[in-house]
């Protein structure tokens, strides 16, 4: 392999690791050095430049005009519904003839539709939707988008579709740059993405840092794919970025899934205006067919974008359990999306400054999910003379000087003994998805902390020894205390995922806690896990893995866990309905073409407690071998890893059964 080919492979892999897997494999400095070396080689040897060169990601020559291209299959739109009842009616028509139908529900990206064509693994054309029959050729611009591969992980010819969008964080940065330069800001992220993709200079497109989600593959039968969910996994295996915010559900689960997405839609770093619901089974899709404009097997449920104007009365500063300082706006009460709103998040001080928000301003408020509203903009033409804003530099709880961590935009209180940080950690510890101690609500925790009764997690389980002192506090009688003691005693038996969540590890929400509990058979096994072990698990990146290992390496945290066990906490480990333990603690990699869909095989292996990963390493135990295997087979032989053909695997499973 020449140095040029080696550089291409390293840089393309780094792009995939960073932009698709969210698991950076090399430092920014190392990446820049590799890219510069590749560019220097290409400058001296222009004839060797290939269509999959990473240098194309930084933009090529200016385009004279976009030519029209005809789509191989029409790019249809989706019909919309705006209420749960209308959605249910649509789904009921489908299920009336076929009762056992599952649907794939996914967050709808508010972006620009794109069609990508690959021949023998190489990107040869990218086109916009246009009128559905003809679109614009935007190939050179799309080549600059970091999470769209120039060369697929498989040498196949395929056509896929998805959405190009601008992350909200990038959109805010671009608008701030425009304002700083005295330019007019973009109206919204979707228009900014559409305008960017139609720039004639690919270098401008590269600087705007567009992103993509790919979710549709044409002619899936050619690849033995039978469901929408399997196609997403296949698309991801090819090297594309796939939106993981989707669920498989029935008609009966429709309302709860929509409610879930409605709650989380403002936590993701992209604009979403609804949920797309598709029949999961491709055979059923084909039977249902299409109208002239839209498929009969899919629909878009649109969220209600309710907003209202009110007055900002004050700004208060809250301290989170990790020290993050969050400004909260106190509002003149207003009804938004059926709720009486009196508070709104202001996100961070940079957001306040960029939107020029001041106390006594009249502001536009939008419901950001089910609970937390946000201030969208200020009515500056109605700004009163007494409008003002005073930034803070000290923690409102402990008066420690605030800092900004690394490149983060949030202010941060570095004092680990900050009363507000400790209180919020205790509140998290007793919350519903943690120890779920119902009788210890936020106000009770705060009172017990302020009266020097509770300082840490252990104090909760030794609360009874302070019985006489607590009785002296107003509002605490024998009956109330006995109820609290009973709740604490009941909470000592806790599921593994709830225990992990209760510890308050940074970046580990309840879904990640559940994921960890399913991958590790005991707390001790999780404690011993390395960063490498953790990053082999889908959805866990390097930063999260480092936070987890750092938490368990901390001496004080180890003592806390030991003391919790001593105080009678019993962790229950779920068997997760595994068929067997034949592959317990076994790391398996799959390579090559299979007789069954890859997603199906992964489910089979996981049902026998296997951990299926994407890459071969010295810790891999088994390689499952399909047809036309590539470099993974070579590496497995070099590392002396056990190799099983697909037939040998199923023979082993049949023998075990």
Characterise this structure:
The chain is of the alpha+beta class and about 650 residues long. It folds into 6 domains: about 55 residues, Helix Hairpins, CATH 1.10.287.610; about 220 residues, D-amino Acid Aminotransferase, Chain A, domain 1, CATH 3.30.470.30; about 100 residues, OB fold (Dihydrolipoamide Acetyltransferase, E2P); about 70 residues, DNA polymerase, domain 1; about 80 residues, DNA polymerase, domain 1; about 70 residues, BRCT domain (Rossmann fold, 3-Layer(aba) Sandwich), CATH 3.40.50. Helices cover about 35% and strands about 20% of the residues. Strands 12, 13, 14, 15, 16, 17 and 18 form a 7-stranded antiparallel sheet that branches. A 5-stranded mixed sheet has the order 2-11-10-3-9. The radius of gyration is 27 Å and the shape is globular.
Question: What share of the residues lie within helices?
Answer: 25-40%
How many strands, what sense, and barrel or not for the largest sheet?
A: 7 strands, antiparallel
Low-confidence stretches: none
Distance between the termini: 46 Å
Number of domains: 6
Question: CATH superfamily assignment of the largest domain?
Answer: DNA ligase/mRNA capping enzyme
Summarize the structure.
This protein has 657 residues and is of the alpha+beta class. Helix content is 37%, strand content 21%.
Keywords:
D-amino Acid Aminotransferase, Chain A, domain 1, alpha+beta, seven-stranded antiparallel β-sheet, 25 helices, 21% strand, OB fold (Dihydrolipoamide Acetyltransferase, E2P), 657 residues, five-stranded mixed β-sheet, Helix Hairpins
């Amino acid at each position: 392999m020449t140095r040029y080919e080696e550089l291409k492979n390293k840089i393309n892999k780094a792009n995939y690791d960073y932009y698709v897997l969210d698991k950076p494999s090399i430092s920014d400095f190392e990446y820049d050095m590799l890219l510069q070396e590749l560019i220097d080689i290409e400058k001296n040897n222009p004839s060797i430049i290939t269509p999959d060169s990473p240098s194309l990601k930084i933009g090529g020559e200016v385009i004279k005009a976009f030519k029209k291209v005809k789509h191989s299959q029409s790019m249809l739109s989706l019909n919309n519904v705006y209420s749960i009842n209308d959605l249910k009616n649509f789904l009921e028509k489908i299920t009336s003839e076929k009762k056992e139908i599952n649907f794939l529900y996914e967050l709808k990206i508010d972006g620009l539709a794109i069609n990508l064509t690959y021949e023998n693994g190489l990107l040869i054309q990218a086109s916009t939707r246009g009128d559905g029959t003809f679109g614009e050729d935007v190939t050179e611009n799309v080549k600059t988008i970091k999470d769209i591969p120039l060369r697929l992980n498989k040498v196949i010819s395929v056509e896929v579709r998805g959405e190009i969008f601008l992350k909200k964080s990038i959109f805010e940065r671009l608008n701030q740059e425009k304002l700083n330069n005295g330019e007019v800001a973009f109206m919204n992220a979707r228009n900014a993405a559409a305008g960017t993709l139609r720039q004639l200079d690919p270098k401008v497109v590269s600087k705007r840092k567009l992103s993509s989600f790919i979710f549709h593959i044409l002619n899936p039968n050619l690849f033995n794919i039978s469901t929408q969910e399997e196609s997403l996994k296949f698309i991801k295996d090819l090297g594309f970025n796939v939106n993981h915010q989707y669920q498989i559900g029935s008609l009966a689960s429709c309302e709860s899934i929509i409610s879930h997405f409605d709650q989380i839609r403002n936590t993701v770093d992209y604009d979403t205006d609804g949920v797309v619901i598709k029949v999961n089974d491709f055979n059923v899709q084909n039977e249902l067919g299409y109208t002239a404009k839209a498929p009969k097997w899919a629909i878009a449920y649109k969220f209600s974008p309710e907003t209202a104007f009110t007055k900002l009365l004050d700004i208060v500063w809250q301290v989170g359990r990790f020290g993050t300082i969050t400004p909260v706006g106190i509002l003149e009460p207003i009804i938004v999306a059926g709720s009486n709103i009196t508070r709104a998040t202001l996100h961070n001080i940079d957001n306040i400054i960029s939107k020029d928000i001041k106390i006594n301003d009249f502001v536009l408020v939008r419901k950001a999910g089910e609970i937390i509203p946000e201030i969208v903009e200020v009515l500056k033409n109605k700004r009163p003379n007494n409008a003002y804003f005073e930034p803070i530099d000290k923690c409102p709880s402990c008066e420690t000087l605030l800092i900004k961590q690394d490149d983060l935009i949030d202010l941060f209180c570095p004092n680990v003994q900050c009363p507000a940080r400790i209180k919020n950690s205790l509140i998290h510890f007793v919350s519903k998805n943690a120890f779920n101690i119902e009788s210890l609500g936020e106000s009770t925790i705060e009172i017990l902390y302020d009266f020097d009764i509770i300082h840490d997690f252990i104090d909760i389980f030794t609360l009874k020894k302070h019985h006489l002192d607590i009785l002296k506090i107003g509002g605490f009688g024998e009956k109330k205390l006995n109820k609290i003691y009973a709740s604490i005693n009941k909470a000592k038996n806790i599921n593994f995922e709830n225990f992990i969540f209760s510890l308050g590890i940074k970046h580990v929400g309840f879904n990640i806690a559940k994921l960890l509990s399913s991958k590790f058979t005991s707390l001790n096994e999780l404690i011993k896990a390395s960063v490498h072990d953790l990053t082999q698990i889908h959805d866990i990146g390097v930063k999260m893995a480092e936070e987890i290992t750092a938490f368990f390496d901390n001496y004080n945290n180890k003592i806390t866990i030991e003391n919790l066990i001593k105080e009678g906490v019993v962790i229950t480990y779920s068997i997760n309905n595994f068929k067997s333990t034949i592959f317990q603690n076994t790391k398996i990699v799959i390579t090559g073409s299979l007789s069954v869909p890859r997603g199906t095989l992964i489910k089979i292996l996981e049902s026998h407690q296997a951990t299926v990963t994407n890459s071969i390493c010295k810790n891999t135990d088994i390689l499952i071998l399909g047809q036309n295997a590539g470099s993974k087979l070579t590496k497995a032989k070099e590392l002396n890893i056990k190799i099983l053909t697909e037939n040998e695997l199923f023979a082993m499973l049949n023998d075990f059964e």
